[in-house]
From TrEMBL:
UniProt GO molecular function: O-methyltransferase activity; S-adenosylmethionine-dependent methyltransferase activity
Record-given protein name: Predicted O-methyltransferase YrrM
Annotated TM spans: none
Native species: Candidatus Pantoea varia
Keywords, sorted A to Z: Methyltransferase, S-adenosyl-L-methionine, Transferase
Matching PANTHER family: CAFFEOYL-COA O-METHYLTRANSFERASE 3-RELATED, O-METHYLTRANSFERASE-RELATED
Domain of life assignment: Bacteria
Length: 227
């Protein structure tokens, strides 16, 4: 293990640093601010991606020249809006939300942002919607219940082409992902998800741990090499 030769600050600064970079590099426009306020008004859980993470997804899209994007787990559409704004003019996002109330609020937020034409919101269980979608997608963001991540990965592969980027949110969960004896179904799902990626020769992948306003978590980032 490498010991960093720079000072490693504690968690009290993580959110402050997020806020500083966010203001400089990923400021929220009025549509994103509206979405967060509307989500709060309507009682949605506050586990949207951070603004810096939304911008990261937008940058991944631009790096991979993504035109068709799939999101599994819409919540209130905050990440959806970040990504929809990064699409080229002919691009589109398909997003799937299981919770009817969350989907209703997401729809309001997407409409408010004037993005309804680029975003197709499916209401229902992702495992029922995924088989109905046309392949391929250029970028797939997996951010729903982690229990089903292994199934979402199977569908992501079916809906991919060589070059498709697959991003999995919440892949670290405060370090719990490395606990082989965890009985948390989310951790079990994540561990299987990572194991499947690791053994799949069609995929090249990495993991990035993150700290910030959402505490300690991280992303798995994979690219489909061949199918
Ligand atoms: C949870 C889900 C998320 O997608 C997230 O980013 C953070 C937390 C959760 O269900 O606890
Ligand atoms: Mg998430």
């Amino acid at each position: 293990m490498r010991i960093p030769d720079y000072p490693s600050q504690g968690s009290d600064k993580w959110a402050e640093v997020d806020a500083w970079f966010s203001e400089k590099l990923a400021p929220e426009d009025s549509d994103l601010k509206y979405a967060l306020a509307n989500n709060a008004d309507q009682g949605l859980p506050t586990h949207d991606v951070s603004s810096l993470q939304g911008k990261m997804l937008a940058i991944f899209m631009q790096m991979s020249r993504a035109v068709r994007v799939l999101e599994i787990g819409t919540l209130g559409g905050y990440s959806t809006i970040w990504m929809a704004k990064a699409l080229p003019p002919h691009g589109s996002i398909t997003t799937i939300e299981f919770n009817e109330h969350h989907a209703e609020v997401a729809s309001q937020n997407i409409n408010n942002a004037g993005l309804a034409e680029r975003v197709t919101l499916h209401r229902g269980a992702a495992l029922e919607v995924l088989p109905t979608l046309d392949a391929p997608f250029d970028l797939i963001f997996i951010d729903a219940d982690k229990v089903n991540n292994p199934h979402y990965l199977e569908w992501a592969m079916r809906l991919s082409k060589p070059g498709t980027v697959i991003v999995g949110d919440n892949s670290v969960r405060g370090g719990n992902v490395i606990d082989p004896s965890s009985e948390d179904p989310n951790v079990i799902g994540l561990r299987k998800f990572v194991g499947m990626i690791s053994e799949d020769e069609r995929l090249e992948a990495t993991a990035v741990q993150t700290v910030g306003e959402k505490g300690w978590d991280g992303f798995v980032i994979a690219i489909v090499k061949t199918l």
